[in-house]
């Protein structure tokens, strides 16, 4: 098959990624339908940029999206990558074999300047999504306030400023969209959860 495609491992079905954006989910409206209870109605998008394809988790499922076993928010795919939507496994094919960084920043220079405290808030926001465990929703304002030992009102003020800085429009899943943007830009990195021993010392 010419061009990029996704092969569903359970069924062997092959789906060509013809459109600029291909949606993946369990819902009837999804371009690639995966009949698996761990897949949400609208789970992820596959976006074509020239010869490249990147997968974007839409943050609407507790089970998340993984590439080669690692939880992702957005990631460029390489030939042979295994993409898991929940527990449904697919394999990417028809992609150019180039030495590119899978974590390539697709919009370099798009990150706004951040204060130290704003970076702390973003790190706390994204910590659940960057753990090695199954993807969970980003931290709530209350969770962030507890982690940083500040008031919830202060965290909400920081989040409002961050939504403006990253141009996250109002609507549902605003925290998730902010977290996805921050992870995609490489502003926060995965961190080991077992930091309690270090903190205690």
UniProtKB/TrEMBL annotation:
Q: Where is the FHA domain?
A: 22-72
Supply the SMART domains for this chain.
Answer: FHA
Database matches in CDD domains = FHA (cd00060)
Q: List the Pfam families.
A: FHA
Q: Which InterPro entries match?
A: Cell_Proc_Reg/RNA_Proc, FHA_dom, Sig_transdc_resp-reg_C-effctor, SMAD_FHA_dom_sf, WH-like_DNA-bd_sf
Check the record and name the PROSITE patterns matching this protein.
Answer: FHA_DOMAIN
Q: Name a single GO biological process.
A: regulation of DNA-templated transcription
Q: Which GO terms describe its molecular function?
A: DNA binding
Q: Which UniProt keywords apply?
A: Phosphoprotein
State the name under which the record lists this protein: FHA domain-containing protein
Q: Which organism is it from?
A: Nocardiopsis aegyptia
């Amino acid at each position: 098959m010419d061009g990029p495609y996704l092969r569903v491992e359970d069924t062997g079905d092959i789906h060509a990624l013809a459109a600029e954006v291909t949606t993946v989910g369990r819902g009837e409206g999804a371009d690639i339908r995966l009949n698996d209870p761990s897949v949400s109605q609208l789970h992820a998008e596959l976006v074509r940029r020239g010869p490249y394809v990147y997968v974007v988790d839409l943050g609407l499922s507790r089970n998340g999206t993984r590439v080669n076993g690692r939880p992702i928010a957005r990631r460029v795919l390489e030939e042979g990558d295994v993409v898991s939507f929940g527990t449904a496994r697919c394999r990417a094919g028809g992609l150019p074999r180039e030495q590119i960084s899978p974590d390539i920043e697709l919009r370099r220079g798009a990150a706004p300047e951040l204060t130290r405290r704003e970076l702390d808030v973003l790190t706390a926001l994204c910590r659940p999504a960057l753990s090695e465990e199954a993807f969970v929703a980003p931290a709530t304002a209350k969770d962030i306030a507890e982690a940083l030992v500040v008031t919830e009102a202060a965290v909400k003020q920081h989040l409002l400023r961050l939504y403006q800085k990253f141009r996250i429009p109002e609507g549902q899943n605003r925290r998730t969209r902010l977290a996805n943007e921050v992870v995609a830009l490489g502003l926060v990195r995965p961190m080991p959860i077992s930091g309690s021993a270090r903190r205690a010392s």
